[in-house]
Write a structure and sequence with these properties.
By secondary structure, the protein is mainly α. It contains 15 helices and 2 strands.
Amino acid sequence: MNARFEAANAAVIARAQAGGPGRLAEALHYAVTPGGAHIRPTILYSVAAACREDRPALTDAAAVALELIHCASLVHDDLPCFDDANTRRGKATVHRAFSEPLAVLTGDSLIVLAFDVLADAAGDQPRRALDLVRILSRRTGMPDGICAGQGWESETKVNLSAYHRAKTGALFIAATQMGAVAAGQEPEQWEELGARIGEAFQVADDLRDALYDAETLGKPVGQDATHDRPSAVAEFGVQGAIRRLKDILGGAIASIPACPGEAMLADMVRRYAEKMTPVAPAYSQAARG
């Protein structure tokens, strides 16, 4: 998957850079590289494969579009009006490297580019492409997308589950549903799996933010406490958040719809569970220190 996704993603960014303002073109490439673990595209590809994909180019477009939205959200999250972060993925954030105006334009350009990618890939499956656009738009904006998730941070009273579902779960729901749609399947039954995986990742992120250092994560830590944001650690405590994470992941496996690749998807969730829960040693070390 990685080579397939990387090739498709690089081609899209190169096309977007051609002939435009040089600094903004450079910032677009900077914002998506290095690309991290590509967790959302991996889940999308896995669902498509489990549903026996029959249009690989459409799956590629869906995966690239989803990752572009994710990268745009990181650029905007790091801005001074939100987290005011200096580093992301071990290097300077886009607004530190290129200026705040160019960071805003970079995020905006990546969002627009995501939908252009889907439109361009419609080909002989315009209905699937339209459904992909609808899913991604709903999981990006209001009331159910990542914009809503960011908006919850400005409320005086927050429902933690709704906050997690929008802030992090939205793009994981998009990943499972878009993978199914790209393969010609209906998206509705894939929502619960995406929501559960997304909530698990947010709880894991809350734990990392509370327990790890900036060098380990490649970005600032302690942001939830600094910005007085709701978090699983604040609500449940460290050990309670760890138990919550394990419960969510168990439910995620149980929620996988019947499909040819059901066993493969269950194995994928289990592997991600192992990656997401290496927190006990860090907690023990923090407690001793």
